[in-house]
Amino acid sequence: MKNTQQKWYRFLTARRLSELDSMGQKALFCIWNAAAMLLSSMALCAVCLSFAIGRYENLFYIFLGYLRTPEIFLLNWLPLLLVQILLYALFNRQWASFLLTGTAALAMSVGNYFKLIYRSDPFKFSDLTSIRAGLMVAGDYDISMDWRILLALLFVLISTLILFFFARAEARGGVRILLAALVLFSVWPLWTRIYSDGDRYYENSYKNYLFVTRDTRDSFIANGFFYPFLFSITESSSIPPEGYSEADTEKLYSSFQNEVLSPEKKINLMVFQLESFCDLEAAGFTGVSPEVYAPLRQLQGESVSGTVIASVIGGGTVTTERCFLTGTYNQQDYYHPAYSYVRYLNGQGYRSFATHPNVGYFYTRETIDLLLGFDAFYGLENHFQNLTGGEWRCDAVYLPEVFRMAAAEAESGDPVFSFHVSLQGHFPYNNDHYDREDDLWTGEGASDSTRYLLNNYLSLIHETQEILLRELEQLRDDPFPTVVLIYGDHKPWFGDEVYAELGIPITMENEPGMVDYLGTPYLIWANQSAKTVLQDDMTGDGPMTSPGYLMNILFDRIGWKGPAYMQFTEQIRAFIPVICTKGGYIEDGVYTQNLGENGEKLMKKYQDMQFFVRYKPELSE
C-alpha cells in the first residue's frame, strides 16, 4: 500500500525522469510540469490584467473583455510565458522562474495601475527612464495597498509555494539550452510580425468592444498591459518611421535655409511653462471667484493670447516641455546632443539657460536640457535649495528669482533665452481641508471633498498669476527689450468622480470637448522696449495650437522665419494647426479624429522630418 501511494504522487515531487519507474508516471511528470508552467503564467497574466483597467467603473465587466478577446489575452500572456521559460532555463527551478517573473510583472502592473489613477496615463516603455522621477512624487500620492494588490501578492506567494513543493522538474543541460534558444530566436519574428504591427494593435483595440476606445490611452487599456507596453517601444526615437527614406527627407530639408536674425530685432526671450495651469472658467466650471483669474484676464488683454492643446493631462509635463523646445508633436528621452530651437538661438548669438525648482535628475533635466543645447541648467541642487528649502510649490520665491537671473544675464549685452518650468500647481490637492483660502469657488451642490480640492487648486494658481503680474509690471519699462511667453503644460486631473459630480463631460468627440479636456492658455507679452523694436503692440488673439508649434507662433509674431526645420513645420501647421496624440486634430479648419488622405501624407512627412533632424544638432546651429 505504501509503495502504491508513493507511485501515485511521486510525479508531483520528483526532480528527474530517472526517479520514476513506470512510463505512466514519467508521462504524468512531463505533462504536469509543463502544465504548471503554462497555468501559472496564464494565471499571472489574468491577475496582472486586473490592474490594467485602473479604477474604471464596471471593473469586472471590462476585465471580461480581455478574457472574451482571445488574441488580446494571448498577446499579453505570451511575453510572461517566454520570460518564465527563459528564467527556468537559467535557474532550472520552476518556483524561482515564476517568482522572478511574477514580481517583475506585478511591479510593472501596479505601477501602471497607479499611473492610470493619478496621471490618467498608462505606463509606457519610455517611462522606464523616468522611474526615479515617478518615485520622487510617489510620496505625495496615496499608494497604499488595496484589495487587488493584496490578493495579487497572496497569489504570487501561494503559487510560488505550490511550484516549490509540487513542480520540481529539473531539466538537463541540453534541454535548457534548447528552451533558451527557442525563446531567444522567437523574439525577432514576434516583434516584427506581431508586437510592432500598428494595424493589428488598433484593430485589437476595437475587438475589445467592452471598452470604449476614445483615444490612445483607451486603446492602450483596451489591449491590456504587456501587449501595449511592448507596442509602445515603436515610439522609440531609434526606430525609423515605416517607409522612411533619408535621401528623400534630406532633399526636402535642403529646400529650406536657417534664417540669420537681424541684430536690431534680437530681443530677450523668457518662457514660463506653468505646472497644471489652466482656465477652469473657460472649461465650463461655474462659481469661480472673479479674483482668481483677474490677473490672467488683465494679461490676456495686453498680450497675444490663445489656447494650446496638450497631449497629456494631469501629468506628462516633460512631454509638453520637450515638444516646445524641439518642435515635435511627440517626444522621447534624449541620450545624445539633439536638434532644438535652443541650439538655433545659441547659433544666433543668444545666451541660454533653463531652470526648475526641483532636483536636476527629475525627468533627467540636468542632462537632457544640456543635450538640447542650453548653456546651463539651474535646479534645486545647484541654485534653489537655499532659497526654497526644497519646497516644490514655491512660485513666491522661484518666479522672482528667475526674473532676477534673466536680468543679470542680460547685463552681458548678449540677447538671452531663458526657459523656466514651475511646480506650483502640481497634484495632489488636499480634499479634506483648506490649505490657504476657502472662498475661491462656491461649490454649490458639490461634496465637501470636491469643494476642498478645487479651492486648494485655485489658490495655488491664483498666487502664481499675482506673482507673474507683479514681476511683469517691473519689467514693463525695462530698457532691455523682452518678450515673455507663458503657457500651461497641461490641465490638472481631478478624477473622473469630480467631473461626473459637476456634470462636465470628458470627451474627444468634438472640438469643444477637446478644448475643455486638454486646452490651457498661452500668452505672448512684450515690454515697451520690445514693442518699440518690433513695431508691434503685441496684442490680439493667437491661434489654437499644439506645444510643438508654440515656438512657431512666438517667432512669427516677433517677425522671424526661424530655422529650416521650423519653416518646414509651418507648412504642416498651415493645414494641421492642432495635433493631439490622444486622438484629435484640426485639419483644414475642421476638427477630426481621423485625418484625411492629405493630412496623413503631411503627418508622414512631419514624422520623417522629426526623425531626420533628431540627432543632427549641427542642423539647428
Overall description:
This protein is α/β, with parallel strands linked by helices. It has helices at residues 2-13, 23-49, 59-67, 70-91, 94-119, 131-138, 147-166, 173-195, 198-207, 216-222, 226-231, 246-253, 294-301, 317-326, 341-347, 365-371, 380-388, 395-410, 448-475, 496-502, 511-518, 528-534, 550-558, 564-575, 597-613, and strands at 268-274, 304-309, 351-355, 376-378, 416-421, 482-488, 519-526, 540-541, 578-580, 584-587, 590-592. An 8-stranded mixed sheet has the order 4-3-5-1-6-7-2-8, sandwiched between helices. It has a 3-stranded antiparallel sheet with strand order 9-10-11, with no helix packed on it. Helix 4 (70-91) packs antiparallel against helix 8 (173-195) and helix 12 packs across helix 25 (597-613). The termini are far apart.
Please give a quick description of this structure.
An 8-stranded mixed beta sheet has the order 4-3-5-1-6-7-2-8, with helices on both faces.
Computed CA radius of gyration, to the nearest angstrom: 28 Å
Helical run tally: 25
Low-pLDDT stretches are 1-6
Described by the principal axes of the CA atoms, the overall outline is globular
**How much of the residues is beta strand, in percent?**
5-15%
Q: How is the main sheet built?
A: 8 strands, mixed
Cα distance spanning the termini: 87 Å
Compute the number of strand runs: 11
What structural class do the secondary elements suggest?
Answer: alpha/beta
